[in-house]
Amino acid sequence: MEEQEQVVNPAEKRYIPYEFKIPLDARKKRQIHRIDPSVNFTNRTDSYQCIGENATRQKILKVVAQPFTYKIQFCPYE
């Protein structure tokens, strides 16, 4: 995430792939989707597995700030 802060031209920003979990709750799912519409949700037995591929640092910080997000991991696919 620190790499993004060093980029001067916003068009050159690198997006950060990440994943995390939230409880199986439709309201929480909608709340995350409002923050980052690119997140894909997969139902698990007790939670949603959430995968985001085109997040900026600001979006990730908003997601992390939610009290119900957990097991957040960054996924360097390069």
Give a written overview of the molecule:
This protein is of the alpha+beta class and 78 residues long. It has one domain: 2-Layer Sandwich (Alpha-Beta Plaits), CATH 3.30.70. It is 29% helix and 33% strand. It has 3 helices and 4 strands. The chain has helices spanning 2-6, 26-35, 57-64; strands at 16-23, 40-43, 47-55, 70-74. Strands 2-3-1-4 form a 4-stranded antiparallel sheet. Strand 2 and strand 3 (47-55) form a beta hairpin. It starts with a helix and ends with a strand. The model is unreliable at 1-8 (pLDDT under 50).
How large, in whole angstroms, is the Cα Rg? 13 Å
The proportion of strand residues reads 25-35%
Distance between the termini: 14 Å
CATH class: Alpha Beta
* N-to-C series of helices and strands: HEHEEHE
Query: Any idea what the shape is?
Result: globular
Content-based structural category: alpha+beta
The counted number of beta strands is: 4
Q: Largest beta sheet, briefly?
A: 4 strands, antiparallel
Number of helices: 3
The average pLDDT value, as a whole number, equals 82
CATH architecture type: 2-Layer Sandwich
Strand order, biggest sheet? Answer: 2-3-1-4
Throw out a few tags for this protein:
78 residues; disordered N terminus; globular; single chain; Alpha-Beta Plaits; four-stranded antiparallel β-sheet; alpha+beta; 3 helices
